[in-house]
Amino acid sequence: MSRIAYVNGRYLPQPEASVNVEDRGYQFGDGIYEVVHIYDGRTIDEDRHLDRLERSLREIRLPMPMSRAALRLVLREVARRNRVTEGLLYMQVTRGVARRDHAFPSKPVPPAIVVTIKRIPPYPAAVDHWGGSAITHPDLRWARRDIKTVNLLPNCLARQAAREQGAIEAVLYDEATGMVTEGAATSFWIVDEHGVIRARPLGHEILPGCTRAALLAELAEAGIGIEERAFSLDEMRRAREAFITSATSFVRPIVKIDGAPVGDGKVGPVVRRLFDIFARHVKGGLKNAA
């Protein structure tokens, strides 16, 4: 069965789904996207993702293509038509179709929206075989990384560099300061040499990760302390543990960076506990279901 996509009001077999060549998302990357994880038929942290979608759209002065309630219905219908209960819902909103010109259309046009879905493997049963390696890579992205724009060329180049070195992620850093920002497609965390869980504070330099926010809420509820404080490449290399979070990585240990082990090169006790906490968040709590 061909996958079904939603494109500007129509549900279409994916091979037949298309956008106009003058769609501003295609021409300029003038658009926003979001990805929502579905587990056991439930959307995980959906409100966080829709909040971020609306915020990103506001930041580039683009209206929502429909009400939030209507968008929720579209997401569920795409999942239903594709019979997916474990997967990723992808939504993309662009400024629509207009004659090619860098400035916004003088007469506003309707935003364009595409929603697709794909199956993914089940949530990992255990953390021991979930670890991976990373490389470091200069952060070449634009200055507003807090906006989840479809302009992802620097991220693609960084991820390709990681793949070519057998790694699962590129840890990005500011060349001028040597400070770590985030992963090419993930939030990046360390357990520093003193045993403190650390994540860079939110700002224009990083994306406000929804999985990050969900994990922070779970840690607060569990009484586990964390410092939102920037760290350098040198501090990262002295860390006891490191991990990434995202809608697709969940909580994923990083056991090697640039070929050198993180700590003892094994999944550490802190990340092991955080993996278990987040697994309960995804699998157990109805508070996570939309």
From TrEMBL:
GO cellular component, one term: cytosol
One Pfam family cited in the UniProt record for this chain: Aminotran_4
Gene3D superfamilies in alphabetical order: 3.30.470.10, D-amino Acid Aminotransferase, subunit A, domain 2
Known EC number: 2.6.1.42
SUPFAM superfamilies, per the entry: D-aminoacid aminotransferase-like PLP-dependent enzymes (SSF56752)
InterPro entries: Aminotrans_IV (IPR001544), Aminotransferase-like (IPR036038), BCAT-like_C (IPR043132), BCAT-like_N (IPR043131), Class-IV_PLP-Dep_Aminotrnsfr (IPR050571)
Cofactor(s) listed in the protein's UniProt record: pyridoxal 5'-phosphate
GO molecular function: branched-chain-amino-acid transaminase activity
Pathway this chain belongs to: Amino-acid biosynthesis; L-valine biosynthesis; L-valine from pyruvate: step 4/4; Amino-acid biosynthesis; L-leucine biosynthesis; L-leucine from 3-methyl-2-oxobutanoate: step 4/4; Amino-acid biosynthesis; L-isoleucine biosynthesis; L-isoleucine from 2-oxobutanoate: step 4/4
Keywords: Amino-acid biosynthesis, Aminotransferase, Branched-chain amino acid biosynthesis, Pyridoxal phosphate, Transferase
Entry annotated with the keyword Transferase: yes
Gene Ontology biological-process entries: amino acid biosynthetic process; branched-chain amino acid biosynthetic process
Reactions catalysed according to its record: L-valine + 2-oxoglutarate = 3-methyl-2-oxobutanoate + L-glutamate; L-isoleucine + 2-oxoglutarate = (S)-3-methyl-2-oxopentanoate + L-glutamate; L-leucine + 2-oxoglutarate = 4-methyl-2-oxopentanoate + L-glutamate
Superkingdom per UniProt: Bacteria
Principal EC category: transferase
Signal peptide per UniProt: none
Family stated for the protein in its record: Belongs to the class-IV pyridoxal-phosphate-dependent aminotransferase family.
Function text: Acts on leucine, isoleucine and valine.
This protein's name: Probable branched-chain-amino-acid aminotransferase
